[in-house]
Amino acid sequence: MTEPSEYAPPKVWTWNKANGGRFAKTNRPVAGATHEKQLPVGRHPLQLYSRGTPNGVKVTIMLEELLALGKSGAEYDAWLIDIGEGDQFGSGFVAVNPNSKIPALLDRSGAQPIRVFESGAILLYLAEKFGAFLPSEASSRAECLSWLFWQMGSAPYLGGGFGHFYAYAPTKIEYAIDRFAMEVKRQLDVLDRRLAETRYVAGDAYTIADIAIFPWYGALAKGWQYGAAEFLGVQDYKHVQSWADMLLDRPAVKRGRMVNRTSGEPSSQLRERHDASDFATKTQDKIAPAI
Ligand SMILES: N[C@@H](CCC(=O)N[C@@H](CS)C(=O)NCC(=O)O)C(=O)O
Q1: Could you tell me the mean pLDDT of each successive run of 10 residues in the chain, 291 residues long?
Q2: 148-164 burial, b for 16+ CB within 10 Å, e for fewer?
Q3: Which pTM does this prediction carry?
Q4: Nearest protein Cα to ligand 1, atom 6
Q5: Residue 10's Cα: distance from chain center in Å?
Q6: 209 within 8 A of 198, measured Cβ to Cβ
Q7: Looking at residue 23, what is its pLDDT?
Q8: Distance from the alpha carbon of residue 1 to the mean position of ligand 1, in angstroms
């Protein structure tokens, strides 16, 4: 083990902006809006304010799956929220999500707009609204919700714990990386053992549990997260690998992964989505071709 730090916490913590590391520009110890800014509103019933991160992609996959099922009420405008520039602290965004994090959804299909924040709550809201991807029979429903909430409780250890200390922290702290690598490998094993027994996470049917888990643990298995594929030995989780490949074959998953994406191949980035035809005409390679 490397030398422990000499740091001794003071009696009372104070906000030292210079210590904020990679996210210093936006991280704050207080909530609320920093500036007045209204959100744009498009023509569809559902307005999504998001970005193509794992939490954002859960919702765009769900919406594309609903549309693929023929649920036309799931038509949506996906607006890009630049969380690196602090868009999540604009007054309009904070009114839709007081927690200032993407994704946030505004359902304008009824007499009064309904706001929904937290990706798990958004998946559940959409599943109930459209009667899809959530079993109605009690035991299958319980299994689906158990895995949905497993994801919501587990991913912060993967992202905020492992990903942060392995990829983003200004210094490599062995204790922190060890602690969270162990937990993430345990989580991958939980999922791998489950997927050895069942085709989808909650059983025979594809559900919001798969839609929630894939953008985090499928992406980790495919080596897209934190440059940590070899470090975590992700190839060893064979059932997670084949489940992720199966989901990746779904056209709605392919489309959902493109929405609000701002990095990677220009042809894979549909920064805003306002119409189904945008996938063919508005990706970055088409609207901002390289010179
Ligand atoms: N539990 C929340 C987490 C959302 C979240 O952490 N969003 C991140 C991007 S993936 C974000 O908006 N970060 C901006 C910030 O923290 O200021 C959910 O699942 O919706």
Answers
A1: 76 85 85 97 98 98 98 98 96 98 98 98 98 98 98 98 97 97 98 98 98 98 97 98 98 98 97 98 90 57
A2: bebbbebbebbbebbbb
A3: 0.97
A4: 101
A5: 35
A6: no
A7: 79
A8: 32
Q: Find the 104 Cα to ligand 1 centroid distance in Å.
A: 10
Nearest CA to ligand 1 atom 4: 101
101 lines ligand 1 (CB under 6 A): yes
Q: Quick count: other Cβ atoms within 10 Å of Cβ 79? A: 23
81 ligand 1 Cβ < 6 A: no
> How high is the pLDDT of residue 1?
61
Instruction: Give whole-number Cα distances, 250 to 142, 217, 253, 264, 284, in Å.
Output: 25, 17, 5, 20, 22
Ligand 1 nearest-atom number relative to CA 53? 10
Quick one: which atom of ligand 1 is closest to the CA of 160?
6
pLDDT score of 4: 60
Q: Which of 28, 50, 81, 101 to mutate to test the pocket of ligand 1 (most atoms within 8 A of CB)?
A: 101
Q: Which of 217, 213, 260, 206 is nearest to 68 (CA)?
A: 206
Q: How many angstroms separate the CA atoms of 177 and 73, rounded?
A: 44
Q: Which atom of ligand 1 is nearest to the CA of 51?
A: 9
Q: Quick one: which of 45, 36, 40 has its CA closest to 94?
A: 36
